[in-house]
Amino acid sequence: MRTDVVVIGGGAIGAAVAYYLKLLDPSSDVVVVERDPTYTLASTPRASGGVRRLFSVPENIELSSYSIPFFEGFPETMAVDGVPADIGFHKNGYLFIVPPAGVDQLRRNYEIQLEHGCNVVLLEPDQLKARWPSMVVDDLGGGVHSPDDAWLDPHSVLRGFRTKAVSMGAEFVSDEVVGMERDDSTVTAAVLTSGRRLGANQFVNAAGAWAMDICKMLGTAIPVEPLRRFEHYFEAQDPIEPLPYLKDTRRLAFRPEGKGYSGGVPTLTEPRGYNFDVDRSCFEEVVWPALAHRFPQFERTKCFSTLPGLYDQNDFDGNAIIGPGLDGMANFHLLTGFSGHGLMHAPGCGRAMAELLLTGEYQTIDLTRFGWQRVLDDVPLRETGII
Ligand SMILES: Cc1cc2nc3c(=O)[nH]c(=O)nc-3n(C[C@H](O)[C@H](O)[C@H](O)COP(=O)(O)OP(=O)(O)OC[C@H]3O[C@@H](n4cnc5c(N)ncnc54)[C@H](O)[C@@H]3O)c2cc1C
User: What is the pTM for the complete model shown?
Assistant: First the structure.
């Protein structure tokens, strides 16, 4: 079988590409190969669901500024047969707080965010205290609040993109890519477990934390590896005023969820690998002390669940790698390495990849700097917005 585009991996990223391809060119033939239609281990349903503009790299801000309003209108835009695609969008803002040593960087990022039209407010510790009275601010230098940022339900986003893309004619194949065929600089086919061989003009590697395996099948390597991260659900014993999605010092990140909170402390020191083991001591030893340090109400807290998931961690510079060029291959496009912010950029990146595939260039947001070339040139594009 031969098609226009084969997308490998049908998570939020792959499904978004399929949707935008059909939107921008309804006549295009799009096949998404997803080995697990239940998405048991996929990263998307395990994500925390935060969507924010608080970045330092302009492209990341632009991707958020495109994607967040898109998410806001998602139920209507993605409706199929009049049934809205609800994604539980909560526009309750984000707040980054930093110690005194982080204020200069925070302020620089804030200025870049302002330049890009973001609604952001720089707050001194006493202003933080006035706004969120339960917060301990003694060790803080300041914070940036972005009231238009939000969180949402990641699985619903995936389902919304997938269902809509299928309604528009994209085909989702439940099968696994086990081999890739190439002819020098051209990829010719993806070979599936079923024995099927899918030929295409263009291929997109949207296999998330498993993207490096697809590259290995082509005899190549990328600096993207699986990095385990836990998402915990916990409740405070005593009430706290309504909070935004909070990125604290010590990499603590959490947000309200139902009666409690959802969050964790990602660490880059974690060994890379497909590790889904649950380490129950992580909450007690790392997360709880950080929570109790910031809000006394967490002195007595209970962790009800710990869910492991994988980042598609780009150890080169922590940003996505987007587009062709790996090992000289012109029709094999990377769309991976999101390193913890892929869900929030799925709409923007889905659109960008569709534009690239259909016209050969970016039309909405220029993501050239996220290309493979920077790895070849050994020029990392580091995000300093993640503190
Ligand atoms: C705990 C945690 C919290 C996070 N929080 C956030 C957050 O708040 N905000 C945010 O923006 N991001 C967050 N992320 C990151 C986000 O989850 C990812 O960046 C995003 O989901 C990546 O989407 P994806 O479609 O590339 O990957 P996935 O959802 O993993 O999809 C890849 C798909 O490829 C399929 N696949 C793999 N190999 C093959 C093969 N050989 N053949 C066929 N199919 C294959 C897999 O089955 C999988 O379904 C978080 C991640 C984790 C783990």
Answer: 0.97
